[in-house]
Structures are given as structure tokens and as C-alpha cells.
């Protein structure tokens, strides 16, 4: 890694996706937080992932994948082994997930190594975190004291045990966040489905900026500089796989905040447009591994992840 460059720490999930589709069954390294960590590294940011990873075969695959992408790992104990999701796609290609017990009961701890990494980071990013477990929220809030934060609640139906508690835990960390990213799926699962109302709610709760993504309808970013919009980006080639588009968007937004403090509307618009470009490029290859328009032009497809 480049020494003394502004760094990021990502906190959340790392798992194995066991994919069942017309092509058979295959396993890919995945997890929303892991995708964001790898995505940030692919965008040139020194990155460390804090996640629960087991000392088992699945954990070995996760560690190897992170090492291949030059992402550091600070792992918490996993008494039930590594997390796993069985993924099945419907006729339209949309995935459904069934999580093992380890994923449903995931837990993250913050020892000296984790706290040092967070203190040294320019930005901490949280994605797919167990916000519905008060002890987990207490622990991460204490570890993040004084740290600049970006948050994506990214709830998963198969891991969500208490919707009201999840909302309380998530909103506890919103005040003062550098940016909060939410999507139409988050609004439907956690709130009343009104993405615009959710964006306003999070801003009024103290988020410095809120990015609301709505699939084919593009995205809206609201900050003190104003309300900015961007359509989905149009790139050559067909859309192959939308898995990972949200993680790629978060990676690109986070990369634009590291070592920078956007204030003017044009700065936020540039960040938003770049995020839409990266998301569109990621959709033009299978899996959740972040791509950029430049990498597609070079014919680079990389190691598949989900």
C-alpha cells in the first residue's frame, strides 16, 4: 500500500455467497462491507476491513481474496464459523438470500489493532452492520468516537431480527455522519417506502449529506450545498449483473470523501456523477467486484466477487 496516503476502514460483513442458478452451484467471496473495502482499494485507497471471519475453509478463502486485493483484515472471533449466504435468482435475475446461523448472529469486536486503524483513518465506512443488536451498536459507537463516518444501513431480510431496533441503532449513528447512503429497498424494508421522506428525515437527524439511490431512476444527493440529481449512467455493453451496484456506489462516494471535504454544489455533483459511472460499469460484469469505465475500456474483468 502507498504509505501515508489517506486511508479508510470498512466495518461490516464478509461471507461466502453460495450461488444457485441455471449454471449450477458455485461459491464466491462476498459481503457488502467486503465489496466496499475491495472497491475502495481498487480506487487507490489504502483500506482495512473489520469483520467477523472464521478459522475455517470459508474463512481461508475470504482471507486469500482480501490479500489478493491488498485489503487488510482485522477479524473478530467467529465461534459459529464464517458467514454464508445461499443465493438463488428468480427468472428476472433478482437474487434472494438465505443466511446461515453465523451470519445471523455475527458480532464484531474492537481491540487495540482495530481502534488504532480507526484513529488513523480519514474515513470509516459501515455497511450491512447488525444495527438491531444494541450491544453491537454500543461497541461500534464507542470505537467510532471522533472518527469521520459514512453509513449504508444495507439491511438484509434474512439477517434482520428486529426492524424497530435496527432503525433505532442505525439512526443513533446518523448525526454527524459525513454521508449516509440509502436505497429504495432500504426505505421499503425499514420505513414506509418513501425514499424522499427518508432522505429528509436523515438530513434532519444530523447527517452532513444523504445519498438516495433509486435504481433505474438514478440518485439524489442532498447536502448543505443543495439537492443534486444524476440519472443512471449510460455505458457501452449490456447490463450483466446488478449485484454489487450499491456497494460500488458507496465505494465511489467514499473515495471522493477521503482526503477531501466537498462543500460547493459542483464538487458534490462531480462526486455523484462519478459514483453513477462506477455503478454502471460494475453492472457490466458478473459479480460484485467494482469496475470503472476505464477498466472496461481496458478489457479488465478482474476476479469475480459478489
UniProtKB/TrEMBL annotation:
Q: Note the PROSITE patterns from the entry.
A: PFKB_KINASES_1, PFKB_KINASES_2
TM regions (residue ranges): none
Q: Does the keyword Transferase apply?
A: yes
Which PANTHER family does the protein's record reference? HEXOKINASE FAMILY MEMBER, PSEUDOURIDINE KINASE-RELATED
Q: Which Gene3D superfamilies match?
A: 3.40.1190.20
| Alphabetical list of InterPro entries matching this protein | Carboh/pur_kinase_PfkB_CS, PfkB_Carbo_kinase, PfkB_dom, Ribokinase-like
Determine if Protein transport is one of this entry's keywords.
Answer: no
Q: Which protein, by its recorded name, is this?
A: Fructokinase
| A Pfam family it matches | PfkB
Q: Where is the Carbohydrate kinase PfkB domain?
A: 12-288
Provide the alphabetized UniProt keywords. ATP-binding, Kinase, Nucleotide-binding, Transferase
**The family this protein is said to belong to:** Belongs to the carbohydrate kinase PfkB family.
Amino acid at each position: 500500500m502507498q504509505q501515508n496516503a489517506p486511508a479508510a476502514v470498512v466495518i461490516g460483513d464478509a461471507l461466502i455467497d453460495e450461488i444457485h442458478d441455471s449454471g449450477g452451484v458455485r461459491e464466491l467471496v462476498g459481503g457488502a462491507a467486503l465489496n466496499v473495502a475491495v472497491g475502495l482499494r481498487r480506487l487507490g485507497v489504502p483500506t482495512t476491513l473489520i469483520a467477523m471471519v472464521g478459522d475455517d475453509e470459508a474463512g481461508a478463502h475470504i482471507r486469500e481474496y482480501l490479500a489478493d486485493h491488498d485489503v487488510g483484515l482485522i477479524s473478530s472471533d467467529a465461534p459459529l464459523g464464517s458467514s454464508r449466504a445461499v443465493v438463488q435468482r428468480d427468472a428476472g435475475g433478482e437474487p434472494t438470500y438465505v443466511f446461515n446461523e453465523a451470519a445471523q448472529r455475527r458480532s464484531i469486536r474492537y481491540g487495540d489493532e482495530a481502534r488504532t486503524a480507526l484513529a488513523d483513518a480519514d474515513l470509516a465506512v459501515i455497511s450491512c452492520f447488525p444495527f438491531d443488536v444494541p450491544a453491537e451498536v454500543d461497541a461500534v459507537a464507542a470505537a467510532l468516537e471522533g472518527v469521520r463516518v459514512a453509513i449504508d444501513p444495507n439491511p438484509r431480510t434474512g439477517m434482520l431480527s428486529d426492524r424497530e431496533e435496527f432503525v433505532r441503532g442505525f439512526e443513533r449513528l446518523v448525526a454527524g455522519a459525513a454521508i449516509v447512503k440509502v436505497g429504495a429497498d432500504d426505505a421499503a424494508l425499514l420505513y414506509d417506502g418513501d425514499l424522499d421522506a427518508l432522505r429528509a428525515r436523515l438530513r434532519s437527524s444530523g447527517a452532513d449529506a444523504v445519498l438516495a439511490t433509486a435504481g433505474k431512476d438514478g440518485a439524489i444527493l442532498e447536502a448543505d450545498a443543495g439537492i443534486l440529481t444524476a440519472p443512471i449512467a449510460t455505458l457501452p455493453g449490456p447490463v450483466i449483473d446488478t449485484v454489487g451496484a450499491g456497494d460500488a456506489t458507496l465505494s465511489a462516494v467514499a473515495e471522493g470523501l477521503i482526503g477531501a471535504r466537498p462543500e460547493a454544489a459542483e464538487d458534490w455533483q462531480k462526486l455523484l456523477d462519478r459514483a453513477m459511472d462506477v455503478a454502471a460499469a460494475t453492472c457490466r460484469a458478473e459479480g460484485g467486484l467494482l469496475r470503472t469505465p476505464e477498466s472496461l475500456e481496458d478489457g479488465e474483468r478482474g476476479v469475480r466477487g459478489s
